[in-house]
Specification:
Layout lengths: L14 H5 L4 H4 L1 H4 L21 E7 L17 E7 L11 H4 L9 H14 L7 E6 L2 H12 L5 E5 L4 H9 L3 E5 L8 H9 L8 E4 L13 H14 L2 E5 L23 H7 L4 H4 L5 E6 L11 E6 H12 L7 H44 L5 E3 L7 E7 L14 H15 L4 E2 L15 E7 L5 H18 L3
Helix pairs in contact: 5-13, 6-7, 8-9, 13-15, 14-15
Length: 477
Amino acid sequence: MTQLYAKDLSHHLSIEAKSRTAEQIKAAFKHFKDPNIVSLGGGLPTPDLFPFNSIEVSSLAPPFKNGIDVLPQSDEDLLKITIDKYTHPDSTDLPLSVSLQYGPSFGHPQIIQFIKEHNKIIHNPKYEDWDVILSVGNTQAWDATLRTFTNRGDTILAEQFTFSSSAECARAHGLTVAPVLTDLEGIIPEALDKQLENWEGPMPKLLYTIPTGQNPTGGTLSEERRRAVYKLAQKYDFIIVEDEPYYFLQMDEYVEKSDRTPDNLDKHSFIKTLVSSYISLDTEGRVVRLDSFSKVLAPGARLGWIVGQKNLLEKYLKQHDVTIQIASGFAQSIVNGLLQRWGQEGYLNWLLELRRTYTNKRNAALDAVEAYVPKEIAEWIPPTAGMFFWIKIDASKHADFVSKYDSDPEKLELDIYQAGIDHGVLMIPGHWFLVKEKNHPKGTSMFFRGTFASVTEDKLQVGLKLFGEVLRKQFNL
């Protein structure tokens, strides 16, 4: 079988990335721990002076037979993890003497090896020279991506509704964000093809996309559309940046209570239900995948990873050497300790239980949307992944849309947003996520984003009942 290797995409690198050379002290780092060399060259404090002798945490233990959103019922349900300052060389733990020292920017080998094996199980990249490096979560990874590939004045592509922080980060780098037409599933490949076919000026280098459980719309792009978008990346020579913190929060389609059946998936069938990622379809090394533990373990861990071709990841590392240096040693030791004890099977069990928990939350939210949000003015598509639901409202049905709001749905959106707060419920206005073109038409549609991740199922019912009351009052229903 012919082996595939990544395509040379160095022409997409930014001026900054091209100008970076290896940081010389970092290049000498490999000699600092050589037992045959007396190292007087590195500013590394001796671990004997670290005040932390050990750290101990506990977690739920696989196979999570009582679920993952309940307190442990017995010692059997609890896994105690102790990380010592010094550990036997054969241990898979990451000792504090190592993790709390200056270390490799790509991440410590123990956790990198686990993540690479995880990526082989889930995505199995098709070309040989792919790799993984750690990040401090996807927000930092996205900023690093922009610095690696773009220069001030460049244009990048993004879904017309996208994560507002990502768009703002791009604008702060002096970039123009060009919106790509989407529907409630995600990017429409035919529209993107037409957009690029008629493009004027330098072609965009990057497409930024959140293809699974999209923030804010909750949409998930089908494999068919992903393949079509990837072909366009080859045709027009751009890099796909898939920002995928919600990838494992996939679930079955929403059905009414009377039609629901128990979720009896095992780990292997669970993997088969996952939509193909862009990195799994990539044959040329033109996909950069941003992944994270934020939504599957804890946001405050600030630990993620970037998957891509080795030649491009080396440019990230040169930037990391003089910016973040390395992801938190505490986070690496604790997360690695957890994952090594769970193993790949235990981690899959955890992800499977997350799917079940989020499915129940999604169902509770959509049950409430169906019950309380007036269909006379609103429509929605139940999400099949992620943490968000997206409600589209016809602003033209408001009695004062023309006279009071000047036919501007954004003005009405803000009034409803404030009315919701006054009534005790927070829903986020859709236009806060809108990637705007110059003189973009306002139309008559407005949107609100809600999440089912942050509250209990009973509070979802309460919150959406309140939101429905606000809409009925606003529209005189």
